[in-house]
Prior knowledge:
36% helix, 21% strand, Pyruvate Kinase, Chain: A, domain 1, TIM Barrel, 16 helices, M1 Pyruvate Kinase, Domain 3, 483 residues, 3 domains
Amino acid sequence: MRRTxxxxxxxxxxxxxxxxxxxxxxxxxxxxxxxAHGSTGDHQAYLRTMHVAARQAAREVxxxxxxxxxxxxxxxxxxxxxxxxxxxxxxxxSESAPxxxxxxxxxxxSFRGAAKAGDPILLGDGSVELRVTSAGPNSIExxxxxxxxxxxxxxxxxxxxxxTTGAFDASDRKRAEVALAxxxxxxxxxxxxxxVDLVSARRWLDKQPDGKEVGLIAKIERAEALKSIDGIxxxxxxxxxxxxxxxxxxxxxxxxLEQKDLIGRANAAGxxxxxxxxxxxxxxxxPRPTRAEATDVANAVLDGADAIMxxxxxxxxxxxxxxxxxxxxxxxxxxxxxxPRRTRELVRAFxxxxxxxxxxxxxxxxxxxxxxxxxxxxxxxxxxxxxxxxIAALRPACPVVALTRRSLVRRRLALVRGVEARPSPTQGKxxxxxxxxxxxxRTEGLAELGPIVxxxxxxxxxxxxxxxxxxxPSEEPPAPKHS
Length: 483
C-alpha cells in the first residue's frame, strides 16, 4: 500500500473520460483543475468529466479546483508560444490583441509606477528574464537577458514592484462559483499572504450552496507567507508548496530547506502538505524521469510530504500515465526507508492548536500502542476526518483506515498520507465497530499481520475520539449476520 498520495492536474492531454480514468487507474488519488486557463465552459466540461471518470473508475478521488489569484499573467500569444532571443526587445501593454515578436498584453492593475529602468521581469518559471529599458503609464519596454520559450498566459514577475492585490478577488470568486456548482472537494487559493486571506475565503464559501463542505488549500508561493505560516495552517485544511513561484520569491538555494520546514509545520498542525511544480518535468517529453527528478521525489517522501502533484506532466505532457506510474514506483521504494522519528520531533517542536490537545493525545496513544504491539492497522471511525489526520501526522508504521459514512470525508482524506478511507455501513456501537474493524482487516488481508488498534468516541455517536482499544482478530468471532 503506497502511503504518499498523488495529485494529477488535468488539461488538454488528459481531457477525456478515458484519459482521466487512466490517471486514476495508474494511481492518482486526486484530480486538480487549474482555473487560470480556459473559459467557463471549459471549466464546467473538465469538472463534469472528472466526476464521470471517478465514478467509472470506482474510486473516491479528491477533486481540487485552483483559482489563479493575483498573479500577473501575460495575455494570449499568436500560435500559443514564442521564442525570445537574447537582445530582443519586447514591450508589455494592456492591449487585448494577441502577442507577437514585438509586444504582449500584461494583466497588470496599473502600469503607473509598476517598473523603472533596470528592473528585472521574469516569465514562466523564471528562466526567461528581461530587463526594463523604459516604463510609462501605459506600457513597459524591455530587452531579453535570458531567452527561451514563453507561452500564452505565462506568469510574469516584477520583483521590485509593490502591487497591493489581495488573494481571492472578484475574478477568483466567479471562477469558484462555477467550480462549486459542478462539485469540488477543495478550493486552492493562490498567492496567499496570511490567514486573513483564508478567513475571507472561508466566510465567502460558507455563504455559498454546499460551500461549507469544501476544504481550503493555501498555496505557499510568496515569501511573506513564510512569515505567517502558522496562522495560515490554523485556517487551512492543507498547503501546497508551489515551488515555481516560491523559488522566485526566495533564494533558490534556500528553497529545499523552506520545503522541509513547511512540511514539518504542516505535520505539526495536522494539515496535509502537497509538494508541487516541476516534479517530473522532463516527462513532458520523455517516458522516464531524470535521476535528479527521482531524487527530488524521494526527498519529498522522506521529508514527510502527504502528496506530490503533477502539473505540465499530466496537462500537456506526452506521458501522463507513465509519470504517475513513476511517482508510484519511487514513492513505494522510498517509503520503506522513511523514519518517522524526525516527523514526530517536528510535531513536538512546532506550535499546534491547544484546543485539539485531547484528540492529539488520543492519536499519539493510538500510534504508540500500534507500534508497541506491531499492529497491522489502525482503524478510526470518523465523521469529519479530524482524528484520522491527527494519527496520520505522526506517520505510524502501519496503515490507517478511516471508516466514515460520508463520501465527501472519504474524498478529502484521499490527499492525507497513509490514510485509506472506507465506507462505514453504520454509525454503530462499540461491539459493532469492533466486528467491522476485524472484518475490514480480514478483507484487506491484514488480519494475519498483527493485532488491530481501534479508536472511537465513547459512547460513539457525536463524541470526539476518546478511546483506544486493541483487537486480536484470531480471538474474535465473525460479525453476526442480520436477517
